[in-house]
Structure formats: structure tokens, C-alpha cells
Amino acid sequence: MKGARLCAYRPALYAAAGVAAGVAAAFFLPAWAKAALVFFFAAAFFCAGVLKKGKRELALFCAAALAGMAAGELFLLGFPSGSFEGVISGRITDATFCDEYGNAGLSGGNYLLELDGLSVDGRALAGRGSLILPASARADLKVGDYLYFYGAASGEEFSPESYQSLVAAKYRVYYSLQAFDAGALTRVDGSPSAVESMRLAIKGALYDNCREDTASFLFAMIFGDVAYMSDEVAKPFRDTGTAHLFAVSGLHVAILFYACARVLDKLKMPSPVRFCSGAAIMVLYCALCSFSPSVVRSAVMIMAAELAKVLKTRYDALSSMGASCAAILLFAPYFLLDAGFLMSYAAVFGILGFYKPLFRALKKVLLKPLAEGIAVSVASNIGLLPLMLYYFGSVSLLTVPVNLVVVPLTSAFYPFLLLSALIAALIPPAGALLTLASVPTLAGVLFTQAAANVSSAALNADFSPLLCVFYYPLLAIASVFSRFDKKIKAGALALCGALTAAACFFVLPV
């Protein structure tokens, strides 16, 4: 029908698209192109928002794009960098292979430390720094201690093409530190923060009561930290498309929140109190996971759904996804370059857009739990496919069947696992409870390793960013959110498949 919308108007999606476009422009365009784009967006906003008041979508997109460009430019201007020399002081916040008490361990004969609260000759530096010390420096370093030494701090300017810049921005480790005389280093006793103590205590409980490979997997699954996971443990999960399990996915956050919500419901708490308690739990968990994008995205979407219940208004998951994306990019523009951030949203879009039709088709021939599992796995992989091919060059053909087995084994017991880890951390004799809780996860680890050994069959392709730009609009047309007829939706989905097939067999000039 003439004038009908192709999809429902969702302001949050236009805002997210505009912010993402603005951040990308700030990062990748030369100064003259940025200036031209600012003029274009400002003129388009004026024309659409003032002269033609019915063009609210264009006006919102342009305003969001200007905000995204401003956020990106402010980030680039404020990114800590430079070289400094003098007396450096800082507090140890992390150390490779530290034990449950925070005592630093050795890696290749060296201590690998992270320091925050940095200063050089009394001048404060933003963020953290990484420091490598030889084992001969001293043997009593631990998280929370303060170090003083004469040396140098150097930080590179942010570059969108540099993976090291992205890592520095994500973990706020902006500087590489060097001690000119490690033997002259001064240490002052300190203590870990509450968050650091909790992480260390849970880590100690895991390693005291579980096999080493299982403990490293559980630590990664709880905190999203793969520093203690060997490549031997991680590789089978990457090869079988189940690496999302140790990235603290939205599934884990949702399971944790709704387990806590059930407890709060049993206590008959009023809705506002329950919402505030849930929000506090989410903020604490985000802090424990270093505010990784997938955790923040999931927490924001869950709390938006809960707030809608409290206010007794309709909740729209797609709008919540767009709002969380726009908010994260405005506060941390560099996440636009992060594979985890992009894949988290791609997976959610795939599930929201394709789960229902897949489930309706599958439940006619399969049991409901099996149909649900296959539908979620296939839908998420429809959204993830181009990004997985772009970042990794291949997608395992075992992804769906392995996920059907491993995800229930590792995730269904997640609340019990986390509770057991907390109890074992507080009451060490209760470690047997954690050992019991880890059994399903151990089974999942062993199954994944066996599956990776059975077959290495994979879909290999050279997928470019431009192909992703073509793929996702077609996917949006094919999703349940568009108002196109079934033939057009089927054609759009077929074109997505054709793009993928072409990338598998040909080197496309895009």
C-alpha cells in the first residue's frame, strides 16, 4: 500500500545506526571529509526536522550521526599517549598466573603486571600500564601492592587499523612501562579491592576443586577472562563454534539474572525493590567482567525489559538492542571496532529476526526442547555468519549439533555453578559442592574436544566488510520485522545465501 512503512518505526534503531555511522566517519575519514559530512548531516537534519516535519527518521539519523562523530572525535583527542621518563608509581591491579591471594606468578621467567593509578614524577597518567619484570627483581609482588621505580612510560596514539590500539582502549592499558633498574624497585604493601578480591577468591576456589582445564574454562565462562586458558583447551571451542561460552554471552547474564529474580520473587519483594536489586546485581557482575560489551548489552536489554514490567508498558527487544548499542558507542566509541561487540549484536539480531519462524517450522517434526535449541542455534548463526567468515575465515559445520549438546550442559547449571563458586570461595571446606557443580561443564569440555577431533569440516570463505554491508540489509528484509511479502523475504534470504556461497568459491572484488 502506498505510503506504508516497510517496518515499524523504532527510533532507537535509527539512533544506533546514526551513532555507528558517525563513529565510523570520525575514525576512518580524513579531516576534510569529516567537515563536509558534518555540514551535510547538519543541513539534512535542518531540512528533515524543521522544513519537513514528517521526515523524523532522517532527522533522528542525522542528529545521532553528529553525536557519534562528536563522541569519536572526543575519544581520539582524549586517548592517552606520549612518552615520559622519571620516577613512576602505580598500584598492581593484575598479574599473570597470580594465585587466589593475588601473589604474582612467573610467565617465561618474568612477572607480567598491570598497574593503575600511574604517575611520573608526581604527574598523573590516565589509565593503566603494563610492566614486565625479571624474576630476579623480587619474589613478593601481589595484587594491591604499590610500586615505585625509575623508568619510562610510552603510549601510542590510537589507530583504528591497529589491534593493539583496540586492546589498549578496551582494557585501559595505554602505556608500556619499563624499569631501568628492576633491582632498585620499591614495593609498599597494599590490598586488593573488593572486586579484585572476589575474582581472586573465586579463581582460587575453582583451581582448588576442579581439574585445571575445567577450572580455566569455568573462570573464562564466569568472567570472560581467557588469560588462564591454554590454547589446547580453547582451540576445540573455536573450531566447533562454541567459543561464545567463554565470552560471558547474553545467555549467561540472562540465566544469572532470572535465577536471582526467582529468589527475589519468593521473598515477595515489591516490583520497584526487585528492579533496583536486579540492577545492582547486574552492575556488580558487569564490574566483575570488566564491563565487556556482550555483558553490558545483555544487562541493558534485560533491565529494559524489567523496567517495562515495572512501568507496565510494552517491551520491544529490537528497540532495546538499538538503545543499548547507541549508548555503548557514545560512551565507548572504540567498541565499533571490537569483534565481540559486533558479534554479540549480530547474534541477537539473528535470534530476534529468525527464531520464531524457525521454531514454528521445527516443532512440527521435533520435540519442543529440541526444536527450541536448534532454532536458537541456527538463528544466531544466520546473524553471525558473515562476521565469523570475515574475522576467522571459516565456520564449523559442527556448530549447530555441538551447541545443542554443550550449551545445555554448561549453561543450565550456570547459576548453581556460580553459587557454588561463591560458597567455596567464602567457605573452603564447601569445595566439594563446586566439584559437583563442575561435572556437567567437564562433560561439555570433553565432548567438545572429542567433536573437534572427529571432524574438521568447515565452511571457508573470504568475506569482506563490503559484503557484510550488503548481507545485513538483505537479512533485515528477510526478518520477521519487515513488512515485505513472503516472496520478497525469501528472495532476500536466498541472496544472503548466494553471497555466502560466492564468497566460498570465488574471490569477490569487494
Automatic annotation (TrEMBL):
Q: Which UniProt keywords apply?
A: Cell membrane, Membrane, Transmembrane, Transmembrane helix
Does the keyword Transmembrane helix belong to this entry?
A: yes
Would you indicate the residue range of the signal peptide?
none
Q: State a GO cellular component annotated for this protein.
A: plasma membrane
User: What residues form the membrane-spanning segments?
Assistant: 12-29, 35-51, 58-79, 242-259, 279-305, 370-392, 404-426, 433-451, 463-481, 488-508
Principal location listed in the UniProt entry: membrane
State the superkingdom: Bacteria
Its membrane topology is listed as: Multi-pass membrane protein
Q: Where in the cell is it found?
A: Cell membrane
InterPro entries in alphabetical order:
ComEC_N (IPR004477), Competence_DNA_uptake (IPR052159)
Q: Which segments constitute the ComEC/Rec2-related protein domain?
A: 221-478
**Listed name of the protein:** ComEC/Rec2 family competence protein
Q: Which organism is it from?
A: Candidatus Caccalectryoclostridium excrementigallinarum
